[in-house]
Amino acid sequence: MSHDIVVVGGGPGGYAVAFRAAARGLDVAMVEEAEIGGTCLHRGCIPSKAVLHVAEVLTEVNRAESLGLRLRYEGIDGQALSAFRDDVIGKLHKGLEFLARKRTTLHAGRGRVVRGDDGELVVEVTPTGGGETTRVAGRQVVLATGSSPRTLPGVEIDGEVVQTSDQALWFTTPPERAVIIGAGAIGMEFASMWHPMGGQVTVVEALDRVLPLEDADSSAALETTFRRKGIEVLTSARVTGVTVDGGSARVGVEVAGQERSLDADRVLVAVGRAPNTADTGAEELGVVDDRGFVTTDAYGATEVDGLWAVGDVRPTLALAHAAFAEGFAVADRIAGVEDVRPVDHVHTPRVTYCHPEVASVGLTEAEARERLGDDAVTTTSYSLRANAKGIIHGSDGSVKVVHAAGSPPTGAPGDGGSVLGVHLVGPHATDLIGEATMATTWEAVPAELAAITHAHPSLYEAIGEAFQAAAGLPFHGH
Ligand code: NAD
Q1: Mean pLDDT across the stretch 262-278?
Q2: Mutational test site, ligand 1, from 273, 348, 428, 430, max ligand atoms within 8 Å of CB
Q3: CA of 396 to the centre of ligand 1 (A)
């Protein structure tokens, strides 16, 4: 029996293809060697957000006295924290399993794409837990095998003292002294988790700023807040070696021409993720580039007829919601839907759940200036210090709008130039980015956006205020 689609990998990319294809009436098989939900649900986005929520509650508890609350904090109950985190995963996993069983034929095993005897693609499945290899045939095959943490040459991951994000989330006792190598999304999120729990944290970043892919002003704002909280941030720093002795490690770092040695009871290596293409059959089919990614067209089709790829195996944004979008596009193309648009990665929101949160969509100021020229771009910023909810939250933050430069704005519709990018730092930035995503995707102009009534008091009115200022009509800001 041949399915319409066989999906290899049941993470966000894989199950997005499967569920959308099933909704379009196609017959789908899904091959997953571990659990439906992938890295996002079982080792990444979801458990990390659960633990970050605990850290956020603790941050509020730490300022309870200034809020007029007399609380006594007696420490972390690691077992209860783990139970909370596992309960969140468990509830979501149960729902996903139910949907996957209802909508697809599930195969528990490791899939590998090969050419069958007739030259058609088939997926060889080696059952999880052993047994005979079987073959699952499909008219189309989608690779959605995800990614794994990258490591550093010469740095051994022992899983105890030196860890990647695969191990670091499962702590029951937070580190007393942590060194985090890499100030990308994972590094900044773990720093935000461990620091409020009492750990001394040092972040070591090779480039000259934290979250180097974000707008430079977001990086600077986050770095300032981290330093103020007491998180040490070393940028333009080179790790020269990591040695482990018993339960502790020493990390050698070269920064500004000086050698430093940092002692730690936990070292997190968070230097990016590498695509899982080895042993999937993709290399043998000739669709893997020299960095290990699957090469596709804008819709996710590889050069091999009938073979597609979505999610972290592609060199696009390694974000679950980017994988969802890629999955929907592939399923729609296979289903023959007309006018499927390729995923617009520029207008895909980027979100980091550090404290304060950072989120953005569209172009950074530097990208906009490079693409359009200095004269064609301007920016408007609004501080959460002028926002009532921002003050109540006690958190710094800002909204920065990158927009096309109009002639002096007068507030007329079309004035102020279209919005090219929005960059948020502050509480709930990862939720507030929704309105900004619509604004940039629809190429709205600030004056149109300024005319939308925002609830008061609210955090999101800060975005409305930034658009008002960008239209030349500043209200509470200046
Ligand atoms: P990343 O690519 O976002 O950041 C890695 C950082 O490590 C970079 O800043 C890089 O310059 C730095 N680095 C590389 N080598 C180094 C070295 N030798 N010494 C010091 N610094 C070094 O990767 P990540 O943070 O590991 O995350 C992996 C992927 O998962 C990313 O694509 C990320 O977007 C995604 N992710 C997203 C979220 C989120 O959206 N909230 C959360 C976690 C992970």
Answers
A1: 98
A2: 273
A3: 24
Supply the range of the domain harboring residue 13: 2-148+274-345
The angle at the Cα of 169, spanning 163 to 171, to the nearest 5 degrees, equals 90
Query: Distance between alpha carbon 27 and the CA centroid of its chain, in Å?
Result: 31
> Do 21 and 114 have their domain in common?
yes
| Closest-lying ligand 1 atom to the alpha carbon of residue 182 | 7
DSSP string, 379-400: EEEEEGGG-HHHHHHT---EEE
Same structural domain, 108 and 135 = yes
**What's this model's pTM, rounded to 2 decimal places?**
0.96
Q: Considering just the CA atoms, what is the radius of gyration of the chain in Å?
A: 24
Three-class secondary structure of residue 181 per DSSP: strand
Known catalytic residue: 345? no
| Smallest CA separation from ligand 1 atom 15, residue | 271
Query: Is the CB of residue 273 below 6 angstroms from any atom belonging to ligand 1?
Result: yes
Does residue 142 sit in the same domain as residue 285? yes
Residue to mutate, 166, 271, 431, 433, ligand 1, most ligand atoms under 8 Å from C-beta: 271
pLDDT tens sequence across 65-106: 999 999 999 999 999 999 999 999 999 999 999 999 999 999
C-alpha 213 – ligand 1 centre gap (Å): 10
What digits encode the pLDDT tens for the residues 333-388?
999 999 999 999 999 999 999 999 999 999 999 999 999 888 889 999 999 998 99
Q: Give the integer Cα–Cα distance in Å for 101 and 103.
A: 6
CB 271 near ligand 1, within 6 Å: yes
> pLDDT tens, 228-237?
999 999 999 9
Q: Ligand 1, atom 36: nearest CA belongs to which residue? A: 185
Residue 444 lies in a domain: yes
Continuous segment of H or E residues that includes residue 61: helix 45-62
Domain assignment of residue 477, yes or no:
no
Residue 391 lies in a domain: yes
Count of structural domains, the chain: 3
Assess whether the C-beta atom of 318 lies below 6 angstroms from ligand 1.
yes
